[in-house]
Amino acid sequence: MLDKPASALRIRERLIESERLMEETGCYDGITELHLRNQDPLKFETLHTKLRAYCVSAREMARRISASPGVREVGEMVVAIYTPEGDAIALSNGIMVHVHTMSRFIKWMIRNGYEENPCIRDGDIFANNDAFIGTVQVPDVMDVVPIFHSGKLVGWAGAVCHELEAGGITPGGDVALAQERFTEGLFVCAEKVGENDEIRRDYVIRCERNLRMPIYWVLDEKAKVASCIDMRESVKALIDEIGLDYWMQVSKEFIEEGRRAQLARTRQLTVPGIYRGHTFYGHVTAGKPGYQPLGDPDWLYNMPIEMEITTDGKIIMDFEGTQPWGYHSMNCTPAGMDGGMFVTLTQHMNFEGLVNDGAWMATELKLPHGTWTNPDNEMVATATSWALLLPAYGVFQRLLSRSFIGRGFVEEAFVGQVNSPMIEMGGTSQYGKLFGMAHFECAAAGSGALAIKDGLDTAYVGWNPESDMGNIEIWEQNMPMLYIGRSIVPNSGGAGKYRGGCSFVSTWLVSKTDHLRLVTSEHSSRVFDNGGMCGGYPAPTCQKHRAVRDSDIFELAEKRAPLAHHTGTNPHRSELELRLQGEHVTMEGPYITAPHKTGDVFTHSYNGGGGYGDVLERDPLKTAMDVENGYLTKEAAEGIFGIMLDEDEDGYPVANLEATKRHRAEMRANRLAKAKPVSEWIASERGRVEKADFAPEVKKMYASAIKLSSRFTREFSDFWNVDARSIFMPGAKP
Amino acid sequence: MTSYSKEVIADLVAGTLPWPQTRRVMSAYKDDDRFFKYVAVLQDRVSWKDPILLPVSDHLFICQSGDERVTRCECGHSFGDYRKNWKLKASIIVRNTEETLREIYPSSDIPDPQWMEIREFICPECGTMHEVEAAAPGYPIVHDFQPDLEGFYREWLGKPL
Fold first, then answer.
1. Which residues on B lie below 8 Å from A720 (Cβ)?
2. pTM (2 decimals)?
3. Cβ separation B30–A542 shorter than 8 A
């Protein structure tokens, strides 16, 4: 049983009542007037600042308890305070994905009768990492504790950490090879894992016996519980100061204010209307080890997105026309989709501090049932949901940016960034122990360009606003590999008037192990997923992995001969091939293969961001600096941007402005000569469409979208003036 | 209320406002009078007289042209009624071979042209590249933006169109 809810109603009835009031009044919990805010705005704001400070302070404490470099170094966690019904009031900085995921978790427990069994009592600890209950993916493990005051439930404190090891079919957390739920690892399905402020020993034993490196998970549990208790006690002390009735009212007004603030911000920053965009995700798995028979060999996913901004300021995102869920790890639940929206909104609109569930109530997601955004089967895998989730929200970033450009807030327009392929590993560590971990240096890829400047180089990912790759030395402590190179990848930002941020490539020497399995996930593979804007090009893909087995690197080092530290800029022959002897392997798409051992060399690269604006408008002086610093090659500067470079007396590149002007005039003339009217292109391309003269994966993609969406079918048919169903689904019932 | 001069907005739009100042603009409360100053800055940039109603891209604007509202390139070229997809009246270059993709990505990994192509949408008059789409072959050209112009002016800006 629940000790006592704060109102006379049981908490489940209170939740239903709150939702009814929202439905009837359009305002959170029926709060049509912000009485306390109007009464004393300073007190109101001070209290919210205090709550946020509790969260930030609790998170910082938790990071010092954690053993995981993901949490300690990279900050992959967030903590928050909730109402008794599970609505977020205030959050710390960190992985802002989880504004509403923990909310879903709390509400799920309330709706599923947890008041009666297993009961909700003071001192209880509940944990969850089931995305169909409320998280993004298996490694996002969350803990919540109820906050009781004077014997009444007055709220919840919650914390999430991204775990580096989840005990799945492959080592690490984002278990790329999972094709069903049953291979994703250790699930904790809204379970009571502690009582009287103590984590249960049997739960810890379960973790210890089901994880390759339980130290991360278990110490993160302790860190999260400590942060929750810290927040709980702070909230209780605050209630002692302001009174219970005031707390119960003000905590709800914070959320209603958050809702109103989101609507107002949208009206201030954007332009109402319909925005459209799309992106694609390609996955190359055919012939790779570990893929089970259920999985399709190779996949191409289309992700069309329509965003409506209504005149009352609501943002509605519609994913109709996207692909069905599949037997792979990249499906996403509505909780994960919420997460994607929130991490985007907190970076691009909610930058004034008051981030809570109110903003969620000012938005709407239309997630067609049966698609990867909302699977109609709860047994599907979601371990690498970011693979599809983030390209989709990269489009959201660009759609929002279009609205900022329309409104004049060009400094906020941002081409965005998609996802960076994560590397995970396991086997036998350099200490001779079983190990498994995800490597988070991918948290520092290249961002898309802005509408006023170049993107960030090696300093951004969409999923954590505080992108941090962590220290090399810390990562080396935890994996049997040593860095022999970490380099900027030239030309890895999309070209444009402002170029996308550059990515980097790491080169590792496998060391002191005879068994190191490497698996990469969330990979862009065969398609562009970091698009450009306003004439800017997409960033290149980063689909190739290069490895050298049984290399002669130790002999070379002994002789002090040059080593390979990166892959270089020759797409046909890498630096590894040039400098190292051994068995050379080049693999497209996800890297999944037989274990490596000491002496092998491996490279892994990350995404750059898309470009903004016409390439022929790029500043020649800035480009010379880019070439000098290794962000661009001279060949790209001249060939893509039309910028002619000379060398000064010290051999440094300098822009030749006159030659650049002439060259660009030629390029513009060539562009016009090559281009043809779109109407002509449509007429010539229609024959190819009618014959479905496409790669099998492309045909399958269209057939899937047509099967699921009448709107996609209509739009495709109207555009090409064809009957899409008869082309891609011959014999299907009309 | 935060407010900036037209000169500051002009420098911001041109990308020439010094970074410390830009950073302050980004971090401060937004200026509610931005839109009309922004449009005035853009109007100064174009050689034609038709009033700009809404920018839709870097060099593309919806403007009032007599009784019509059209999407217009900065050079003056009209792409027709703003409610229709301007891309359908543009010129296009499609890169769907390794050779043509390599022109833009000389040293990087590129996608499989069987899976994905690049479409460059160009002003047929001045050659400005207004948008680049990366799409699977056969994918319909997307209509990026259909603004609710009336709603925007009437309800958000409080001014008639």
1. 138, 140
2. 0.96
3. no
